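Lecture notes, part 5. Sequence design as translation. It can be helpful to think of inverse folding as translation between two languages: the language of shapes and the language of residues. The source text, in structure tokens, appears below.
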């Protein structure tokens, strides 16, 4: 056995002199373990610690297409996986459990029809999808390894301008709706929780009245309801809470403040604490209870049910096929008139291959080819992390098999970086680039906090039901696991600028993902480019404002692109 010479530590303790291996271990320890914290709490220095195991864990985020098949129900990790960021995995599982529990209780006891169980899946998937996306974004934010990007992130967060996440509301499911098919005011939001006093007992309302529906009112409920309404409330076990000194004392004014702020006389909450509906006047109470009775006994599938025949989607004129690129086989769709005026190559956002009203209209004058990157949309052909620069190269190879001559690139959202990297690979063939609500180039301050819940069905997108959106979100989860986003695309932009490729940036004024400040970022990165705000447009301009979108595309193709092409 050999020993190292002894040496004195700063505390005067005689210890073996560290070997070169010990120094390497200490360096790794300082990198992965908060050494000052350990020293302050235990007196152990980093050089006294040897790391025997260091594991890098990879987390998957996935979401099911549905949560019910007959009498089989999914919940928790079986239905949705997410990263530890946000600590919402177990919370979402508990929400699933309580959501399904009160439904099963009603149906098995004969107090509700089976349709109440049909709303479980769509309601939970619509609620958890943005939570998963937020978890992914939070994990990516915390795990940033680039020193410059991490410093920019830290400065932004320390500025106090970073938005706080809001409570996620339900946007579909067992909720009161309006005759037009939308949700009634406040339906799906969380009910208040405050301290009350009932007789000699005091505490939180939920603790005192127990599990179940709650009808909280500032006026005596029985005076406004018929015996049939009262009988229904009793049969359902609804806890009727009348606020007042002779009934339930609102100790901190929590409930009266809530009712006052929203102009209400009463609200009806579900056993999982979400509001079913509200009443603005005492005369509205019978209609509120009637709406509850209708929701319990509905026999026809609701508008959001996956069993309802889907509304036809755009893209009927497009044919689908595959094309090789590297070790992958990429899926694409194309449509064209007999003698097209030119070719537009479309790159989708994170949901993958998706047709649109705008593409249908463009295909009446141009050849339109939309090509799906590997691992995007329904594709499961990627088993390793893939940077968007590599995706751009693969798309450039694929388009070489599909298109002869020059073309215009049209890219959406996350596809923006793909388009820039693709153009940098084959700049002589790209006549122009249209970046629709593109995530590249963008800064953290250009992005809103992730939307909560599933957006209401847009009148221009009637096919985008909660089930459709949940499926898209499942695709996004899979894509985000494998694609390393490039929200700067600095190297690709440098090539685009050097080669003088015209670029048009488009952003809707009502975009729910990107802020108008994106224009400043765009003009800084691409000062020769053109940027337009589209009034009323959301993140999906191609469907929410298709007429304006097509006009802007055609103007760009026939003016800046032709001018630049003639000068190149």
């Amino acid at each position: 056995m050999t020993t190292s010479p002894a040496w004195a530590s700063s505390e005067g303790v005689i210890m073996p002199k560290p070997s070169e291996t010990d120094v390497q271990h200490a360096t790794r320890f300082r990198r992965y373990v908060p050494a000052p914290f350990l020293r302050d709490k235990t007196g152990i220095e980093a050089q006294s610690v040897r790391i025997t195991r260091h594991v890098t864990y990879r987390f998957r985020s996935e979401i099911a297409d549905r949560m019910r098949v007959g009498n089989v129900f999914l919940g928790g990790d079986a239905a949705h996986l997410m990263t530890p960021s946000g600590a919402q995995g177990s919370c979402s599982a508990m929400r699933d459990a309580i959501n399904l529990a009160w439904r099963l209780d009603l149906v098995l006891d004969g107090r509700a029809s089976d349709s109440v169980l049909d709303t479980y899946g769509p309601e939970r998937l619509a609620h958890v999808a943005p939570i998963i996306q937020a978890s992914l974004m939070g994990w990516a934010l915390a795990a940033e390894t680039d020193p410059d990007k991490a410093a920019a992130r830290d400065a932004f967060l320390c500025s106090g301008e970073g938005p706080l996440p809001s409570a996620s509301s339900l946007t579909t499911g067992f909720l009161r709706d309006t005759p037009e098919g939308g949700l009634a005011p406040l339906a799906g939001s969380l009910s208040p929780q405050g301290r009350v006093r009932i007789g000699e007992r005091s505490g939180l309302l939920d603790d005192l009245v127990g599990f179940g529906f709650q009808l909280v009112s500032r006026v005596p409920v029985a005076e406004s309801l018929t015996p049939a309404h009262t009988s229904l409330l009793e049969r359902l076990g609804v806890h009727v809470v009348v606020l007042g000194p002779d009934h339930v004392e609102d100790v901190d004014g929590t409930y009266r403040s809530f009712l006052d702020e929203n102009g209400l006389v009463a609200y009806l909450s579900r056993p999982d604490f979400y509001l079913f509906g509200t009443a603005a006047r005492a005369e509205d109470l019978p209609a509120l209870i009637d709406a509850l009775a209708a929701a319990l006994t509905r026999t026809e599938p609701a508008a959001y049910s996956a069993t309802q025949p889907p509304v036809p989607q755009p893209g009927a004129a497009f044919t689908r096929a595959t094309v090789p690129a590297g070790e992958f086989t990429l899926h694409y769709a194309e449509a064209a008139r007999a003698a097209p005026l030119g070719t537009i190559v479309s790159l989708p956002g994170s949901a993958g291959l998706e047709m649109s009203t705008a593409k249908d209209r463009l295909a009446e004058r141009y050849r339109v080819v939309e090509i799906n990157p590997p691992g995007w949309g329904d594709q499961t052909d990627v088993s390793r992390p893939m940077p968007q620069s590599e995706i751009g190269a693969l798309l450039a190879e694929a388009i070489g098999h599909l298109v002869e001559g020059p073309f215009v690139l049209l890219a959406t959202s996350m596809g923006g970086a793909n388009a820039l990297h693709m153009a940098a690979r084959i700049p002589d063939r790209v006549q122009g680039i249209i970046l629709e609500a593109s995530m590249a180039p963008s800064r953290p301050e250009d992005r809103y906090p992730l939307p909560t819940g599933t957006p209401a069905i847009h009148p221009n997108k009637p096919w985008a039901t909660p089930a459709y959106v949940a499926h898209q979100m499942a695709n996004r989860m899979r894509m985000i696991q494998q694609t390393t986003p490039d929200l700067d695309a600095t190297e690709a932009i440098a090539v685009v600028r050097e080669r003088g490729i015209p670029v048009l940036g488009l952003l809707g004024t009502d975009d729910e993902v990107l802020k108008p400040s994106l224009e400043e970022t765009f003009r800084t990165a691409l000062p020769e480019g053109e940027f337009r705000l589209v009034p009323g447009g959301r993140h999906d301009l191609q469907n929410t404002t298709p007429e304006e979108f097509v006009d802007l595309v055609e103007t760009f193709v026939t003016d800046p692109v032709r001018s630049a092409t003639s000068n190149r």
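The translated text above is only one of many valid answers, since several sequences can fold into similar shapes. Residues 1-18, 300-308 have pLDDT under 50 and may be disordered.
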